[in-house]
Write a structure and sequence with these properties.
The structure is a single chain. The chain is about 70% helix and about 0% strand. It is an all-alpha fold. It has two domains: about 100 residues, Farnesyl Diphosphate Synthase, CATH 1.10.600.10; about 190 residues, Orthogonal Bundle (Farnesyl Diphosphate Synthase), CATH 1.10.600.10. The longest helix is centred in the middle third of the chain and has 23 residues. The chain is globular and about 60 Å long.
């Protein structure tokens, strides 16, 4: 079903609202998105705004269950072409119908938000990867559709980049999450070094044991960064710089954590503006020398996302 007609002025007003949400968002995402071609800026803003508003509705609301039910209802209306009278919903509806985003992808994102609301914990790295696939790989897949590609090989690599980035975020936020009652590090890995999630929540403090688990999780992220590198050649040339910049900026967060002795309880890793500029310069060679393409099958955690696009 198509999208209800509205004037060009109305469409532009809606997308300006999405750009305003993007401007207030993740500094790393904003820095990388600015490297994307102008033809994609509005679509990127619409996608980011949908993800941001949905996350905030669950995370900041008083009743997560009700918020999730409303989000699913809003998503249903987007997909039948009757979005709510909200600039984000209308812009995301335009995007969904312009580039044919399978409903299973944003629905999986909402499922990840539901797991957050449940304060779900993950016993194994595989279970954690399943979570990361929902809250991050979904975004990577939708961004790839924004770029205009539906290549299964590229979708796999983009989804794996999402895994890597989310694992990095988890390592950066160990202390902040614990103080909020959340633990994402694999419970099995914590148990191997004599730690447990409840103890971490009650008393979040740095230790050699916790540092070892953070280091191990960052090593897992690095595996997915390396796998994701095999997709660089498959991106449209004018999108490579933005993707490569995002990859380098997020991976740098892991290196800052390492320099802090893997202590992300008393410190929070970030990259300075000067360092971001340096990394953006380092991303430039990807335009001409993207490296060999990979045809490896998707990581198991993201296979369902690739399959959803294939139909």
């Amino acid at each position: 079903m198509g999208v209800p007609a509205r004037s060009e002025d109305e469409r532009r007003a809606d997308i300006r609202a999405c750009h305003a949400i993007l401007a207030r968002g993740s500094k790393s995402f904003v820095a990388a998105s600015r490297m994307l071609p102008s033809r994609l800026q509005d679509r990127t803003a619409a996608l980011y705004a949908f993800c941001r508003v949905s996350d905030d509705a669950v995370d900041l609301g008083a009743d997560a269950s009700s918020a999730l039910a409303r989000l699913h209802a809003r998503l249903d209306r987007v997909y039948v072409g009757h979005p709510d009278l909200d600039p984000v919903d209308r812009s995301f509806c335009d995007l969904v119908h312009e580039i044919d985003i399978p409903k299973a992808i944003p629905a999986a994102l909402l499922e990840g938000f539901a797991w957050d609301a449940e304060r779900r914990r993950y016993a194994t790295p595989e279970a954690l990867e399943a979570y990361c696939a929902r809250v991050a790989s979904t975004v990577g897949v939708m961004m790839t559709l924004v770029f205009g590609s539906r290549s299964p090989a590229l979708l796999a690599r983009a989804a794996e980049l999402g895994l890597a980035m989310q694992l990095t975020n988890i390592c950066r936020d160990v202390g902040e999450d614990a103080r909020a009652g959340r633990v994402y590090l694999p419970l099995d890995w914590l148990a191997e070094v004599g730690l447990d999630a409840d103890g971490l929540v009650v008393r979040p403090e740095p230790s050699p044991a916790l540092a070892a688990v953070v280091e191990r999780t960052l090593a897992l992220a690095e595996i997915f960064y390396r796998r994701a590198d095999g997709g660089m050649r498959l991106y449209p040339r004018d999108c490579r710089l933005g993707v490569r910049a995002a990859r380098l900026i997020y991976a740098e967060i892991g290196r800052v954590i390492a320099r802090h002795g893997y202590d992300s309880v008393t410190t929070r890793a970030y990259t300075s503006k000067a360092r971001k500029l340096f990394l953006l310069a380092r991303a430039l060679p990807a335009l001409l020398f993207p490296g060999p393409a990979s045809s490896e099958p998707p990581a198991p955690a993201v296979q369902f996302l690739v399959d959803a696009v294939a139909g």
